[in-house]
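Tutorial handout. Part one gives the primary structure; part two gives the three-dimensional structure as tokens.
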Amino acid sequence: MPSFFALFAPAHRKPEMPATLETVRPVELSEIRAARERIAGTILRTPLVKLEMGAGFPDIRLKLENLQPINAYKLRGAANAVAMLSESERQLGVWTISAGNAGQGVAYAARRAGVPCTVVVMESAPVAKVERMKALGAKLVPVPYEVAWKALEARAYPGVQGTFVHPFDDHNFIAGNATVGLEILEDAPDTACVIAGIGGGGLITAVGSAMRLLKPDVKVYGAEPETAAPLALSLKMGSPQKFERKPSFVDGAGGQSVFPRMWERMQPVIDGCIVVSLDETRNAMRLMAEKSRVIAEGAGALPLAAALTGKAGQGPIVAIVSGGNIDLAKFFELIAEVRKLPQTIPVTK
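Part two.
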């Protein structure tokens, strides 16, 4: 069987391997605050709104990262990572690997910096995300999901040139994402729990880091779909695990493995992971649309679905709506599938 690189590399050139990686270390509060200043002119300070569910349900607030200029939180990390590149690194151009949201974030930040951008994009990415990346000027290299995931591990892809910006295993990317944690505690200092969807782990590592630094008693939970739950499996087994992932409409979360470096980052700053069904996720999408007029993609609805299981307590719970990049026709199709379900999901006692 040919190697990953041998399978895709042109015969006349071997792909460039990355330099020695920076040692994993905790994010410092000074780095998060500096990132906030650095990206203030690029990102939106998103609102935190209460989801009115009525008596007997947890106190849930929605952190609306779907309102960012790219409709996803990834702009925070991307803007900080690109801003911190050296001039020589920018001259090479930048590239990343993405199912859509990180690609949009890096493309948006690169365009503002006048830097060429390439995205190795998963072929399963929704049309809405693909078209948005094209509109931002990114050169796209479509590949199957499994190939993209291997490239994320290798931090290289044959034939793609430039400075690689990792969409989650990058200290500066995480520091930028952590600014969402500062905003949560400023707007809701009584927060008891924060829930974030899990893809590669960059968001929960960021938010968990901010909580541990500023209010360590806040519980931090990940949320994964039942079809792709490597973090929950890893926590159960006590080490980073691979998962037999099944494709679903939750394209922006749910990986096929936990990278060892991300396991090292996440372990000290999270309290657990809640796995939800696809029906629960669809129902959360519908509830946000009906009660708050919020359009969330599958990954953005995972935290609300997790909060409604009751496994995160009575709150106040902040569910991070990580993104809203979904084809509207697909959104309506998905929420139509759960019209016969109860309007609300009972809290598990």
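Part three, for discussion. Residues 249 and 298 are 6 Å apart (CA to CA). DSSP finds 15 helices and ten strands in the chain.
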